[in-house]
Amino acid sequence: MTYNANTFLAYVDPINPDPQTMALAAQAIQTGGLVAFPTETVYGLGANAHSQQAVSQIFAAKQRPSNDPLIVHIADLDQLSQVALVNDERVWELVERFWAGALTLILPKQNSIPDNVTANQNTVAVRMPNNLIAQTLIRLAGLPIAAPSANRFSRPSPTTAQHVWHDLNGHVDIILDGGSTQIGVESTILDLTQPIPTVLRAGGVTLEALRELLPNVVVRQLYLKEGENAPASGTLLKHYSPNAEVWLFRGGNTALVHERMRQTAESYLAEGKRVGILLPDDELGVFTGLRVQVMLMGETNAQLARHLFNALRTLESAGVDIMLVQGLDEAGLGLAVLDRLYRAAEGRVIEVKG
Ligand code: TXA
Ligand code: MG
Predict the structure, then answer these.
(1) Which ligand approaches the C-alpha of residue 45 most closely?
(2) For ligand 1, is residue 41 a contact (CB within 6 Å)?
């Protein structure tokens, strides 16, 4: 791909964003440009959500297929009616509880939202990010901002401005660097246009928290449970993939899982492959003595979520051919992390029985 923009990378204090830098970024949005900005989940690649032309630049920059709809970001509740039709009492309860925050709602769309934002559907995805840089950008631009994650299509989502620069330098006008994102996985997508409220993507707002308001919420199947057969080829979407083979190990017996991971590492090393391992901190000792690169990702599920995409990208930059990672429990952000691991592994899942 050839470069078509002079990318301007600007550090912005996340607590006290510089007004001049923010004004420049807002102007870029108003004039049809692309601005990458931090949110509390991952970085977004933003454009004026009312402009078909500006939005088309997002698809070009990401090399994203046009049938994959975007999320519209707002900063104030007044903007919601510009984007979506709200004829459902549950919306107000949900936004009261979860906005600003990592919950995206699928609602009937307003006519003024161009078709390429929603991939020709009559519903729209909308959320209010909980990040001062994002909120300031939207307010100063005076427009809702359509923004997917700011990565090249099918790559791990960006949790730092450097990740955005790596994927999109030359294809975005301004990157606002507000440091590492806090949550580290994307927002939870909740479809309220279904007869039963349905989570389409697990994310930053946990299922446990959603259930407190919506006891009947269901989750669209995110990945295969133990013992289930793989779906027809093609239905397991390639997504979040680093440029290396990822293998996911699952099983109830941690010692056996580690044993199997060690054997797998040894056999790849014997073939001359470079191997990386993603590990929780407390398992540091498990792979000593092997010539592998280890990324420690913290201990709690929330820490694993925060560090996952950076770990995948860091091991990729280190040049590993193979990445080994084990599953985790589904509690809290664990469900979202497992979903991303399944997709990164593109179906390379080893169930360790015992
Ligand atoms: O945390 C996030 O959600 C980040 C930050 C930047 O806000 N954004 C993000 O966007 O992850 P993206 O484009 O990578 O994922 C948006 C997904 C789409 O892939 C699509 O599956 C779903 O949202 N989506 C958007 N509009 C939809 C619609 N009308 N119906 C169903 N799903 C929709
Ligand atoms: Mg994405």
Answers:
(1) 1
(2) yes
Q: Write out pLDDT tens, residues 301-350.
A: 999 999 999 999 999 999 999 999 999 999 999 999 999 999 999 889 99
Q: Which domain holds residue 46?
A: 8-219
Which atom of ligand 1 is least distant from the CA of 121? 29
Does ligand 1 have an atom closer than 6 angstroms to the CB of 82?
Answer: no
Distance CA 25, CA 35 (A): 7
- If you average pLDDT over residues 92-114, what whole number do you get? 97
- Is ligand 1 within 6 A of the CB of residue 70? yes
Q: Tell whether 325 and 184 lie within a shared domain.
A: no
Out of 66, 71, 168, 188, mutate this one to test ligand 1's pocket (max ligand atoms within 8 Å of CB): namely 71
Full-model pTM = 0.95
Residue 226 inside a domain? The answer is no
Is 61 inside any structural domain? Answer: yes
For residue 78, what are its two tokens?
A: 């007044």
65 plus 203 within the same structural domain:
yes
DSSP secondary structure, 159-215, as one string: SSHHHHHHHHTTS-SEEEE--S-SS-SPPEEEE-SSSS-EEEE--SS-HHHHHHH-T
